[in-house]
Amino acid sequence: MFDLAGYGPQIFAGTVTTVELSLLSLLVSFAIGLLGATAKLSKSRVLRGIATVYTTIIRGVPDLVLMLLIFYSLQIWINDLTDWLNNLQNSIDFEVSLNPFTSGVITLGFIYGAYFTETFRGAFMAVPRGQLEAARSFGMRPSKVFRRILFPQMMRFALPGLGNNWQVILKATALVSLIGLTDVIKAAQNAGEGTFRVFYFVSIAGLVYLFLTTISNSVLILLDRKYAVGVRKAVL
Amino acid sequence: MIYIIQNYWQAFLYSDGYNMTGLAMTLWLLVISCAIGFCLALPLAIARNARNPAIWGPVWLYTFLFRGTPLYVQLLIIYTGVYGLSFVHNQPMLADFFKKGIDCTILAFCLNTGAYTTEIFAGAIKDTSFGEVDAGRSLGMSKWTLYRRIIIPAALRRALPVYSNEVILMLHATTLAFTATVPDILKVANDAYSATYNPFASFSIAALIYLGISFCLIFTFRKAESHFLAFLKP
What we know:
The complex is a heterodimer of chains A (236) and B (234).
Chain A: H1 8-40, H2 45-60, H3 63-88, H4 100-126, H5 129-137, H6 142-172, H7 184-195, H8 198-227
Helix pairs in contact in A: 1-2, 1-4, 1-6, 1-7, 2-4, 3-4, 4-6, 5-6, 6-8, 7-8
Chain B: H1 2-13, H2 22-48, H3 53-68, H4 71-81, H5 86-90, H6 92-99, H7 101-126, H8 130-138, H9 143-173, H10 185-196, H11 199-228
Helix pairs in contact in B: 1-10, 2-3, 2-7, 2-10, 3-7, 4-7, 7-9, 8-9, 9-11, 10-11
């Protein structure tokens, strides 16, 4: 269909990288979001304070700035740490070097964890208290209450926000090519510069993203249907 | 950190001696793209709610394309792609426009924020209760007056909380300008980083400035909400 001038495999590999990066970042930020929401709703003032500072700062600073900040600083901190450890015990000498993929996952997960925290906080609060009290009165342990009662009902309220966040993460992976990851954009740029048809190849990268967002939209509609089972809708 | 502040505070805030840079540039980008995006979005939002598919179809396509792809890709297409096309290259006026990083950046930002704002406003217009429209019509208002007096003011008020979010996201998006060599805050921070090899200090200063702008915007929009949405207060 498209004339890719032999750059097809690279662009495909870049697309796979983009998808992997966004799925892994989604996983990390999902976990951070659950932890953050729990911290924000906990009784401990310290935990609440930490979670509030985290979400306020992360959501107030552009993701690209945070990405560059974390990407360049993280390596320096890790080097300092390993140097310190090496000095501590002279026998072992080891280094950890971060590749753009790992630091992309870490930074995106850390940044969007803040957005997920807010989404989950609202969703946790939307689950009626009586449900949790009923579960507890049945003698369920807290972990079981979370798994059986809180999480399934919370997901229904969280889904629209989650879908939004997912779309934003997917589009934010585009920034990771700026810190040197060979994702679909980088591959398309390379192809464009190799063939002097930048417009054409970058547009193809755009089409790839369009395809991914459209697919995830339909998946979100399906998920919404699954989690809204048993909810009666008003017929207008 | 102190060294960077001493050497770069002017560049971070308003100028590097030749051009507008840093904070001034970021705010300029934000204001111009939000202003043009707003003017673009208002008529498109009305068209988006039209009954004729020939009118809402193209608007839907526009918002679908611009909301479905990352802004970075749009900027790349406009900044690096369009100039390579031969008909642009051969026409002096177009070539002049697409050669400049700042023109391309503003064009990409306007189109991008215009698409998001169109959907926000279209949703708000769609939510207008038909009683208000009926009441306006029964008073003999023409379609133009109905939109000007009833639908648009109410819709803009309802859209304000979501629109404020979009403006803050636009502030975050302006950081991409540095990839098109526009000297905004992040570009200055990047320069400071390459000169000092101190990434944490240089980017932290930029982050603090952005945090400050975000807080100012949030504060302003909260004031505006309590003014324009006063009737919603309990």
